[in-house]
């Protein structure tokens, strides 16, 4: 009986140690609340003039050449790149690029 009690107390201590290790290693991650970003409707933004769009298109063409983008992917890349620049500058996005 004495050996069984000793063995059970030893087993209890081992289990407590493992549970302390398991629960101690879990760090609480603070909840991140995203900042509220006011959404601006596209219609409220000003339209960019053709000169600015041409500058962005030229810049994006140089990036595409550097990245070796060509063929059917080129047009989609240029439109996305120009729209990204327009968005950064606060202008209305375009739907097609000449």
What is the gist of this entry?
The protein has helices at 2-24, 50-66, 72-89. The chain is an all-alpha fold and 98 residues long.
Protein model, in words:
There is one protein chain. The protein has 98 residues and is mostly helical. It has one domain (2-26, 42-89). The protein is built from 3 helices and no strands. The relative contact order is 0.11.
Topology (SSEs and partners):
Blueprint: H1 2-24, H2 50-66, H3 72-89
Helix pairs in contact: 2-3
Provide keyphrases for this structure.
single chain, 98 residues, mainly alpha, 59% helix
Number of helical stretches of at least 4 residues: 3
Q: Work out the radius of gyration.
A: 31 Å
Query: Which parts are unreliable, with pLDDT below 50 for 5 consecutive residues or more?
Result: none
> Mean of the pLDDT scores?
77
Number of strands: 0
Q: Give the termini distance in whole angstroms.
A: 91 Å
Global structural class: mainly alpha
Rough shape? elongated
Main sheet record: none
From N to C, what is the helix and strand string? HHH
